[in-house]
Here is the input.
Amino acid sequence: MLRRYLTLLVGYLRPLRGRVVALTLLLLAGITFQLINPQIVRRFIDGATSGSPRAALVALAVVFMALAVAQQAFSVFATFLAETVGWSATNELRGDLADHLLRLDMGFHKSHTSGELIERIDGDITALSNFFSQFVIHVAGNLVLLLGILVLLFRENLWIGLGISVFAVMALAGMVSIQALAMPWWKRVRQKSAEFYGFLGEQLGGTEDARANGGVAFIVERFTRHLREWLPASVRGFMGWAHLWSTNIVLFSALTALVYWLGSRFFGAGALSIGSVYLVFSYSELMRQPMDRIRTQMQDLQKASAALTRVEALFALESRLPLDGTKLLPAGALSVTFQDVSFAYHDGDDGSDEIVLSDLAIALEAGRILGVLGRTGSGKTTLARLLTRLYDPVEGTVTLGDVMLRHTDMADLRRRVGMVTQDVQLFHATVRDNLTFFAPGFDDRRIHAVLDELELSDWVQALPQGLDTTLGPGGGGLSAGEAQLLAFTRIFLRDPGLIILDEASSRLDPATEQLIERAVDRLMAGRTGIVIAHRLSTVTRADDILILEGGEVVEFGSRKALAQDPDSRFSFFLQAGMEQVLE
Here is the structure.
């Protein structure tokens, strides 16, 4: 296990090696000062009792004070460097873990709440902060200090050095044993913490519905239940720390008694001067510092061990979607082909599969618009998820521009395929950042040109600070229609070859929908489009129609031809005036 810790430590501290070296030198200098100062006091005491010149005693006092001040100054700089190193390393680890999780397939994200993942990315890694900044350096430094004390005690008296050395070995062995017993409980503490914050994030996100439907009492009951499960694990974990603390007190009480007994005996025998007795006592007291710090580091190691195990478990997860594709999609509008595609969700804990699409076979020419109709659960949204490669089909192949999606470079796919849903995700950031997804390289002239083309410039200029207007969390302050307008602008900025609209106008008022429709007309020009909808009016611009039912193709063909065919399902819908296809 220690090798795993060191491998992780070295990997993230290597870019900070300059600061780590400086921190090590500062700690070694501090250790040297700590070992020298008792020697100076011993000389002062022996000199005072033997009648040494006053000037010599004053000189020793000045040196002692200078070293004490220097030691404190070095300690301040060491603390600053340690915190800098710890936060820099853990922030890098946070970024790597977040990047890894964002690359995992949707099956993973369906089975973990956002609150749980936040706690595991931030909470678990925060528990590693001290491990990165102090553990190895401080444990090694305190072991060096402990070794230095024992060497100097051996120089004073063999038996005193031997007795205190036996004590140190026994104390360290006891600390390691207690640490091993407590580690599983700290792992459970981290798990319960993640479950609690996952629950909390989920409930806070649904506060409005919970209050409106009288669910607050139930939430409070579950809140209490989570805390009741968390508390025993925390108590057991802290009991491990308490055992270390109490063991430390008992051992050092025994050490103090041993030092008094040995010091008085050897002083009475004339083997030690009064200054040497002070030196032995001072070093025995000084041993409290490294032993206590090692105890503290062992407590932190308990937490770090549990956190590291959980972090490693996340890094060990692999996406079900191979991400090694290298082929680029062709320029311009993209053709779309589903060849005998079947798909089943298998996100459930019981491993059961839910068949959603079965033997889907369609081909859409580049530049044409496909309207997809069907009842809820017919597979419409799944079709869009396959095209954006959030999932891979169980059987069959999906191609864009004659390139299989499995072989496509994922970054290029994200650039060339744009998707707008009815639930637009917005960030607590400026309008500009929401339009560009925080990506550099988009100047305001390009953004305004797109807004002009979509006839949205007046809307943006009406905002309090234009593009610099800060949106509330989740796009607070914007209507559903305004959020859709932002989403369309996002897509237009990327200039994709395929645009997917998934129920994009299902919750808009008529006035806003007209504005959206004009924006869609401009967005679809010269591009391939797929419009997923419940309502027939939404697919009036479609060139082709696809009707799904139970994951199978019921009807596929030219919109014009299907409308003129009296036997087609689409023609029946039109003649019957069935606005809601799901009815």
